[in-house]
Each structure stands twice: as C-alpha cells, then as structure tokens.
Amino acid sequence: MIGVQDRSAKAAVLNASGYTVVFLYLLFVLFPIFWIALLSVKNEVQAFANPPLLIFQPTSDNYYNLFFEENFGDYLLNSIIVAVSSSVICLVFGVPMAYASARRKTKATQRILIWVLLSRMAPAMTYVIPYFVVFSQLRLIDTHFGLVLTYSTLNLPLVIWLMRSFFLDTPSEIYDAASMDGASTFQTFFQVALPMSTPGITSTGIIAFVVAWNEFIFALVLTRRHAVTAQIGIGNLQKYEGTEWGQMAAGAIILILPAIVISLFISKFFVQGLTSGSTKG
Length: 281
Description:
Blueprint lengths: L1 H39 L3 H4 L13 H8 L3 H32 L3 H12 L6 H14 L5 H26 L2 H9 L4 H12 L1 H17 L2 H6 L7 H6 L9 H21 L1 H10 L5
Helix pairs in contact: 1-13, 3-13, 4-7, 4-10, 7-10, 8-9, 10-14
C-alpha cells in the first residue's frame, strides 16, 4: 500500500509540475498578445502612461482611424486575395504531384523531390532580387498576380512534401484494390486518395495560407501601391511625424484573427491531418 501511495504521490507531483510548465509557457506566449490587445484600445495618453494602465476607458479610435484614414481595409483585402489564391494554387498543383511521387518510387522521382526540397532550403531573401528583376521586365511589380505567383512558387515544395507524407501513410493495398477493381489512375486519385486525405489537405492548406499571410519581404519589395498587403500597411504606420502605436497594435490584432478563427472552427481537422502524416515519409 505504501508503494502504491508513493507512486500516486509522485504521479500527482509530476502532473502538477507539467501543468505548471504548460501554464507558464502559455503565459509567456499569450502575454504579448494580451498587451497588444490592450494597446489597441488605448489612446495616446493611456498608451504611454507610466506605470502602465490596466484599468482604463477603452476606445475604438485606433480601429476606426486604421480603416477610414489609413485605408487598411484595402491592404487587408489584398492579403486575403493573395493568401487564398496562392494556397489554392499550391494545393491544385502540389497534391497531384505529391500523390505521383508517393506512388512512383523511382530514382528519377527521388531526384526531383531532392531538387524540390533544395529549392526551399535557401533563405527567401536570396530570391528577392531575381524576382524583382524578372518581374520588372514582365511588368508584374505591384500586381496581385505577381505576389500570387511568388507565394505559390515558394510554398509549392512545402505542400508537396507534406502531402507526400499523407499519401505514404495510406496503405498501398487500398490503391491496389482500386486498380484491381478497374479504376484508372485518375479515378483512384480523385475517388480514393483525395477523400482519404481530406485532413491532410486541410492542414496543409492552412499551413500554406499562414505562410503566405505572414510573408513580409517579398510583399515589401514587389509592391508599391495597388497590391500592398496588410503586413506592409502596418509597417507604413511608422511615419516621419511619428509612429502610430495604437493603430499598429489594432492592425496586429486584426492579422491574428485568422489564426484564431482557424483554431476554433477547423482545429479538429488540423490536428488530425498533422498526426496522420507523421509516421512515414
């Protein structure tokens, strides 16, 4: 009995320690977001008060000025168009390529996969100047199509490698059974592989969207006025007259909202997709 009690006590201590570590980690991660949210509803006097104010009269002026004086709504729309379009394009081309590479395990396929991976190994900054030179000649600077093409090119290797893991995780006997029943390659892909990999497609699409949504360097170099994204719009709040800290905080909170919406509504598919493709590949 004493041994059982000792083990129970040790388990309770370990559980308490684990919860404490998780709580401290969440506090460390969420506190900056909490502080930005407070700053977004403070006026200039409240924002620079010393000591900082935790109890104050909130205001929505920062959000109002952000949309009606700084045209942040246009920047936000640009980000939505570019991120959604590039994610869809990456899935449309990346998922079939991932399926083909998972089913055709040849030396040529392996070489192609290595080249695809190597294309994503270099820092994004190394591609900025070549893209700028080429896009200047093609007149794609400051266009939605130019940004969509750029993000699609950068995220396609990521989509291929992630989706390949999901297809490899599916037992090959399922595909073989479909072929024995007379299904063609296209029928096997559309009627068997795609429905079974829905969680993987969802999670991969989310990752591609988030990467495109948060991208800054290419949007900074390849845009001027018409295709400026929300990330660049926030940076433009640093003006010669001063920095609009309250409006920057409001913009940051708005940019965080997609991640919150994703976590609330499709977190089940996201977690299932991440775990289902983590055993092979």
